[in-house]
Every structure is written in structure tokens, then in C-alpha cells.
Write a structure and sequence with these properties.
The protein has 7 helices and 7 strands. With 234 residues, the protein is an alpha+beta fold. The longest helix has 29 residues, at 93-121.
């Protein structure tokens, strides 16, 4: 679980300055048309500050009414107004609220993911392992199978259950190599079933992927689908 200290702005700026390795960079960065009130570079930078702050509170799944309360607290804190709550009392409760909201969101996502996993397991040629992973061979390889300690070279394409792409070496046109025992449990188990030259679809329950914490753009409790082509065992 991510820790949510009071200094949201500092965390947001750090997060904003570091690239998200889970998402490939856009092929060409183009600036969107300016919205009303965003005429100057300073206006746009201040708007970007708000976007950066949002990345640290998105997990709270705030309603419109709750977001208005956040804006009130931000305004009073920045302007030095009299605070409406005792921050020493309620500040420490932020972490508990974050965990509560994230847990609820993960539960909803996992319930939807289980239905999706069952659909995937019913597809022709699909097999479901004891850990719940759905394995569907797409192209049979002719080489060797890797072992749990093998270093493999692969191309992959990762999506959420709604088809949203969250990571893809195929889109980056750049295969990657990694030790098979250094990745998510789904890959460690299922890639061993692919022979060199083969390709398979892996559908991973959340507890074999990123669990209740999620990762980057991957929601908490999400099941994931990967198309993995095993290029080589190095």
C-alpha cells in the first residue's frame, strides 16, 4: 500500500518528474489545445501542478462532494486560513482511509476479474492451472522450455480485462530479457510452458500479478492478459 503523507505536493512533483516505466512513451508528444483560462505557460504549469497532485489522491476514489472538501482543505492550507479540523488528529487517519478505499476498490475489481477469468478459461484450447492462471497456446514452438531460473528474451503485449494496453514491448518494437524468477508469479509459472519460438496468451489472476496494490495504471485487484512470444533462452 502506498503511503500518503501530508506533503502531497512534494510527492506529486517527484512522481511527475520521473517517467512511468510501466507505460511506453508516446510516439510523438504534441501539446493539446489550450483550455479556457490556460493562456500562459504559468497557467498551464499551475494546472499541471493540480494534475500531479491528483496522481497521489486518485486511489481514494473520491466523490465530487469529497473532492470539493479536498479543495477546501488545500485552499485553507495554502492561504494560511484557520483550519476547520485538528490536523494532528485527522492527518494520521489519511492512511487508514487510503487503505479502506483501496481495499474496497480491489474487492470490486477482483469480483469482476473472476468472471472474466472464467470466460477466458472456457475458450477453445484454454487450460487453467492450479494457481488460477489461464494458458492458451497461440503458436507452438519447436525449441526448449525454460526453467524457473532461465533468463528469457520475449516480446509481450499486456492488457487489462477491458482491452486497455498498459505495457507492450511490441508497441515499443523492443524485445526484453529478464530472469524468469524475477518477474510476477504468473510469468514465472506460465512462460515455462512455452517452447522457444512459441507464443501464448496468459491470463493472470491478481494474486499472481500485482495483487491488491496494483501498479502504475494497473488497478488494485486487476487480472491481466499477456500475449507472450518466447524468442530465446539466454
Amino acid at each position: 500500500m502506498r503511503y500518503f503523507p501530508l506533503a502531497f505536493v512534494s510527492l506529486a512533483l517527484v512522481a511527475c518528474s520521473a517517467p512511468d516505466s510501466s507505460t511506453p512513451p508516446p510516439a510523438a508528444a504534441t501539446e493539446p489545445a489550450a483550455s479556457a483560462g490556460l493562456e500562459s505557460d504559468t497557467d498551464k504549469t499551475i494546472y499541471a501542478l493540480g494534475v500531479a497532485i491528483s496522481s497521489n489522491i486518485r486511489e481514494f476514489n473520491l466523490t465530487a462532494e469529497e473532492l470539493a472538501l479536498v479543495a477546501d482543505g488545500l485552499r485553507d492550507g495554502v492561504l494560511g486560513n484557520e483550519l476547520k479540523v485538528d490536523i494532528q488528529m485527522f492527518g494520521p487517519r489519511i492512511q487508514f482511509l487510503a487503505e479502506e478505499r483501496a481495499g474496497a476498490a480491489a474487492g470490486v475489481e477482483k469480483q469482476a476479474a473472476e468472471a472474466w477469468l472464467a470466460e477466458q478459461a472456457a475458450l477453445p484450447g484454454a487450460e487453467r492451472t492450479a494457481s488460477g492462471i489461464v494458458f492458451i497456446s497461440m503458436t507452438e514452438g519447436t525449441g526448449a522450455n525454460p526453467t524457473p531460473t532461465s533468463t528469457v528474451r520475449v516480446h509481450y503485449h499486456g492488457t487489462l480485462r477491458d482491452g486497455t494496453v498498459f505495457d507492450s514491448s511490441v508497441q515499443r518494437n523492443e524485445a526484453i530479457s529478464f530472469p524468469l524468477n524475477g518477474v510476477i508469479a504468473c510469468w514465472t509459472e506460465a512462460v515455462q510452458k512455452i517452447k522457444v519460438g512459441g507464443k501464448a496468451k496468459l491470463v493472470c489472476p491478481s494474486d499472481t500479478a500485482y495483487g491488491d496494490q496494483g501498479q502504475g495504471s494497473i488497478p488494485a485487484g486487476a487480472a491481466l492478459a499477456f500475449e507472450v512470444e518466447l524468442l530465446a533462452i539466454e
